């Protein structure tokens, strides 16, 4: 049973790494972005609510995101572990997740923090060529990430596994797998 969060700034490769790591660890990759898209595509009540917020350019409120995450983590394939990508992003979300997991005698086992220098992230994000990926917009998003993430790292201080996110996809994945396995094995948890 392995419950892992993946955290990192935009452009560090969280989504790419999360999918490969989850597969290597034989646990589902649970992405809030995927949950939003899935619910919206299926036209569920939550999906219609998500679509309404996204279409108006607003953030999906915590109440909706929490409901989707709780529903997904309650699915049979996630009962023995998961790699959660995109949640929590704030301290209140982390506190809620801890309470939610504790209600079924579970906890987050590790928090994988993918790091890269802002200069590298800026280069990667501007290379994507998206209209909203201007240097100013990227800098603003990175500053917001750093201000919101620091409290998460403090909250999960004893479970953070920091890994350098610079390198090829395979190099970063191998580095992350080794770091996670070393950490989990050192804490009496299988990985």
Automatic annotation (TrEMBL):
GO cellular component assignments: cytoplasm
Enzyme Commission designation: 2.7.4.3
Keyword Nucleotide-binding: yes
Alphabetical list of InterPro entries matching this protein: Adenylat/UMP-CMP_kin, Adenylat_kinase_CS, P-loop_NTPase
CDD domains the UniProt entry points to: ADK
Compartments it resides in: Cytoplasm
Binding site for AMP: 32, 37, 58-60, 86-89, 93, 130, 141
Pathway: Purine metabolism; AMP biosynthesis via salvage pathway; AMP from ADP: step 1/1
Keywords per UniProt: ATP-binding, Cytoplasm, Kinase, Nucleotide biosynthesis, Nucleotide-binding, Transferase
Listed GO biological process terms: AMP salvage
GO molecular function, one term: ATP binding
Sequence positions that bind ATP: 11-16, 128, 167
Pfam family, one: ADK
Catalytic activities: AMP + ATP = 2 ADP
Region (NMP): 31-60
Annotated domain remarks: Consists of three domains, a large central CORE domain and two small peripheral domains, NMPbind and LID, which undergo movements during catalysis. The LID domain closes over the site of phosphoryl transfer upon ATP binding. Assembling and dissambling the active center during each catalytic cycle provides an effective means to prevent ATP hydrolysis.
Family: Belongs to the adenylate kinase family.
Role, per record: Catalyzes the reversible transfer of the terminal phosphate group between ATP and AMP. Plays an important role in cellular energy homeostasis and in adenine nucleotide metabolism.
Subunit annotation: Monomer.
Protein name: Adenylate kinase
Record organism: Nakamurella leprariae
Name of the coding gene: adk
């Amino acid at each position: 049973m392995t419950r892992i969060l993946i955290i990192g700034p935009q452009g560090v490769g969280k989504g790419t790494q999360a999918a490969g790591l989850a597969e290597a660890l034989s646990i589902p990759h649970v992405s809030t972005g995927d949950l939003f898209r899935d619910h919206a595509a299926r036209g569920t009540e939550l999906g219609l609510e998500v679509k309404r917020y996204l279409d108006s350019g607003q953030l999906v409120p915590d109440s909706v995101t929490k409901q989707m995450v709780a529903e997904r983590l309650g699915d049979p394939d996630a009962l023995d572990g998961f790699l959660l990508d995109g949640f929590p992003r704030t301290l209140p979300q982390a506190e809620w997740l801890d309470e939610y997991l504790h209600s079924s005698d579970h906890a987050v086992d590790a928090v994988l923090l993918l790091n890269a220098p802002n200069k590298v992230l800026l280069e990667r994000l501007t290379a994507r060529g998206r209209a909203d990926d201007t240097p100013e917009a990227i800098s603003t998003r990175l500053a917001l990430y750093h201000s919101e993430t620091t409290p998460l790292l403090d909250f999960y201080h004893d479970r953070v596994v920091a890994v350098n996110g610079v390198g090829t996809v395979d190099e970063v994945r191998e580095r992350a797998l080794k770091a996670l396995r070393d950490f989990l094995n050192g804490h009496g948890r299988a990985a």
